[in-house]
Amino acid sequence: MSYKNIAHQKQLQLEAQIPPQWRLNASQIPPGLLSPADSITNTGQYEAINVLEIPRICGLLTPEELHITEQYDIRSLLDAIRERKFTSKEVVEAFCKVNDLVPCSHLPVSLTSHSQRAAIAQQLTRCLTEPVFEQALRQAQKLDDHLQRTGAPIGPLHGLPVSVKDSFHLAGVDSTTGLAALASRPAAHSSPLVHLLTSLGAIIIAKTNVPQTMAALDSCNHLFGRTLNPLNRRLTVGGSTGGEAALLAMRGSMVGFGTDIGGSIRIPAMCTGLYGFKPSAGRVPIAGTQDAGSMAGKGRVSLQPVAGPLARSVADLGTVMAEIVPRAELFSEDGIPGVWSGSRISYAPSVRGGAAGVTQPPSFGERQVLTIGVLRGDGLVEPLPPIAKVLDEVAQLLRHTPGVRVVEVPVPPALSKCQGIAGRLMGVDGANPMMDLLEATEEPLIPWLRGRMKRGRELTLAQVGALQAQRAQLEREMLAMWRTRSTTATAGWARDIDAIIHPVAPHPVPELDRYNAVGYTSSWVLLDYPAGTIPVRAFREDDLELGKEMTAPVLGSWDKANRLLWNQKTVDRRVYLGSPLSVQVITPTQHDYELYQAMELIDRAVRGEARVSAML
Hints:
Layout: H1 3-15, H2 36-41, H3 54-57, H4 63-71, H5 74-82, H6 88-98, H7 113-125, E1 128-131, H8 133-150, E2 161-165, H9 192-199, E3 203-208, E4 220-221, E5 225-226, H10 242-249, E6 255-260, H11 266-272, E7 275-278, H12 298-301, E8 306-311, H13 314-324, H14 328-331, E9 350-351, E10 359-360, E11 370-374, H15 385-399, E12 404-408, H16 415-426, H17 432-440, H18 461-478, E13 486-487, E14 492-493, E15 499-502, H19 519-526, E16 531-538, H20 557-563, E17 580-586, H21 592-615
Parallel strand pairs: 2-3, 2-6, 11-12, 11-15
Antiparallel strand pairs: 1-3, 4-5, 6-8, 7-8, 7-16, 9-10, 13-14, 15-17, 16-17
């Protein structure tokens, strides 16, 4: 079959999951929600509309339902289920109602909200690929039976609604990764992460949309169309975990899991104002996922992707990571032994010994002061003015945070080489397996991939070995980034920078198909440094700097392309108004818990400033 016929069948299957009584009125859907095929090419018809308010005004949700969906975080939802305020089955029945599987008149009003959120999110953003409500209903019944029989939850995430990226396998369900050739090939087994989550009591409710081949930074494909950014439909939702980001932003799931090799968790989080967490390799199982037809074991010899969560708060990230990290080694061959613990950071001075009334700064591990470095660029692409501005704002907030020392980190010469090595390792197979799948159904490349993907030569073992040797040299050189002084106590150097803040991208959230520089995220995968995204604030009028252009010398072709996103001859800067501005937080490899601690501290500093601004 041709890709068009395959796509038509998949779209009919997905559309059938939302019965007529759960559909928005045509007047409630902003103009430009094009057919899946048109959504890929006719992007100029999208208006700069924020659709997050539609669930509140569409009439499908009662005030009680709105309160439930907008006030619960993961911990409070889990507590409510354990306290039997409602059952897991009741929650999942709400999702099944969307699938029209059971009569819904008997369901408590407060439990139907997530189902309506997911239905609304799909109609406004095209974020879903595979709803699995019937399977979730059966799992929820088992959880309730266990709780009724034993009086105890089946696991620490008992009843938690979770969504996963399309690349994760669910037994009996497709994992197309946006390729028509992989449709109607249901997985025989679920991925290890899915087994881990369900063992903890979580309930998988849906799989979410990705770019064609998962190798793009704009989430669109010919099977399901383009996933739209609910904050502004003229701006990209990012990729390749874009469907997760859209669903979470619309509050259609409590937490989502994606993968990251070039920035695929952190970039969608940046585009939608969410929190993303790219851990070190082995912390979250990624084995057993659909790799878009690449040669088997590619990640073992090239650049290894990692899996991680997206959520609406740092606390939600911590809640799920605390349960996954200690168990990863038990569920997957790629899992490593780990613990999720350490010294909590205090956020105000506290008395710690010494004379009465004398305050000491908070601790970070055994340190008395947390040192955060500011890394302003990557040596290849100069951040655009609003990106440099928001990074400096966060640095200033941290300078006024008790117990925090802020230092400038010069751009290491090795960092500018990381993007090139990462790109070559991603392409060790010459993209030939992906191109084979595309050509099998005569499927054309999506706009973002045109000019970026083509057949190439598969690298030889000697060539891959040489690349890995260069990678090892860069890893050695980058160690110096974490130290600012020598110590006589250790007769040498000691790491005294605990975390680094850095842009997620050198530009704001761009328009559809215009995402530019991936080096700000892919380099940290090459180095296996855990990294997370924190939303800071919205893009404001004073960020526009209308009439001013960048005057610094152009650094190269990547920098030249990046400046097109700011040049007033090639972009109307006002399109960025209201879009989220974020920062990236980075720690050394395997310091994942420290990344969580640093993100928590930085997020509190940012939100404290936001509260002051609101009061003024």
